[in-house]
Amino acid sequence: MFAETLQTRGSTNPKMQEEYLDTIVQQTERLTRLVNDVLDFSSIENGQKYYHLALHQLSDVVQSAADTMRFMLEEQKFSLGVDICEGLPPMLIDRDAMERAVLNLLSNAMKYSGSSRAIALRLIHDDGDAIIEVVDHGPGIAAKELNRIFEKFYRVTTPENRAITGTGLGLAIVAHIAAGHGGSVSVQSTPEKGTTFAIRVPVNGKSPS
């Protein structure tokens, strides 16, 4: 609708043009994420999702994800704190898949931050593992829901979440990507205080298949 309005009628109001174009960009990015989630999970369900492992700097992947999300975060008045440890050696990872996992967690944090506008993204080296953490300060997740949030199509149902769109596949895809790298994903949450998702993968990695 916004694109057709600009195409057919245009506007002499620069502020209106900017608002329309911002909306088009945001909705296009949202649709792209939804389509990618569906396609990725279709491959997973059919046993056709493969990870192409090669040596990459995980710090570069995390920073790239932060840079990709920065415009969208700023548009919605979020602040993103990025803390990346130094000294990690190159790791055997599928760069695109791992960046996708981080993007999914950042997108999830944006959707479920409530009135808070602060998100943290951290890369930590801990006892032979690399840990990517995404932290929000939203309403959190009830304890009874925590065991199910990585299930496909499962979404936490609260009055506040009903208006939030999504496929319910994002976290399931993150879990599959982590497992494909010999790692795991976990969540810690305190109602009314926020949620931390953590992807943990071994620094030594797994051998490419």
Characteristics of this structure?
single chain, 209 residues, alpha+beta, Heat Shock Protein 90, two-stranded antiparallel sheet, 7 strands, globular
Task: Summarize the structure in words.
There is one protein chain. The chain has helices at 2-8, 14-45, 58-75, 95-111, 170-180, and strands at residues 54-56, 79-84, 91-93, 118-126, 129-136, 184-190, 194-202. α3 packs parallel to α4 (95-111). It has a single domain (54-202), classed as Histidine kinase-like ATPase, C-terminal domain (Heat Shock Protein 90, 2-Layer Sandwich), CATH 3.30.565.10. The strands form two sheets. A five-stranded mixed sheet has the order 2-4-5-7-6, covered by helices on one side. β4 and β5 form a beta hairpin. The protein has five helices and seven strands, in the order ααβαββαββαββ. Helix content is 41%, strand content 22%.
Quick rundown:
With 209 residues, the chain is α+β, with helices and mostly antiparallel strands. It is built from 5 helices and 7 strands.
Structural class: alpha+beta
Rg: 18 Å
Using the 3D structure, state the CATH architecture: 2-Layer Sandwich
Topology order in helix (H) and strand (E) letters: HHEHEEHEEHEE
Mean pLDDT: 83
- Low-confidence regions: none
Number of domains: 1
Strand residue content? 15-25%
Oligomer: single chain
Helical proportion, percent range:
40-55%
CATH superfamily caption = Histidine kinase-like ATPase, C-terminal domain
User: What does the largest sheet look like?
Assistant: 5 strands, mixed
How many helical elements? 5
* Dominant shape: globular
CATH class: Alpha Beta
